Amino acid sequence: VVDETLRFVNISFVSFRQATRDVSVN
User: Fold this and answer.
1) What is the E.C. number (predicted)?
2) CA–CA separation, 15 vs 7, rounded Å?
């Protein structure tokens, strides 16, 4: 359970970073 939660948080964090980077680029 912990591994799945950690994976979900990691994916969300990466997606958030990519989104913020795209916004800053534009």
Assistant:
1) 1.14.13.79
2) 12
pLDDT band at 21 (very low <50, low <70, confident <90, very high): confident
Q: Scan for tokens 């990466």, then name that residue.
A: 14
Cα-based distances in Å from 13 to 21, 25: 12, 18
What is the pTM for the complete model shown? 0.54
Q: Please list, in sequence order, all residues whose beta carbon lies within 8 angstroms of the beta carbon of residue 11, skipping any fewer than 6 positions away.
A: none
Please give the C-alpha separations between residue 19 and each of 4, 8, 13, in angstroms, as whole numbers: 22, 16, 10
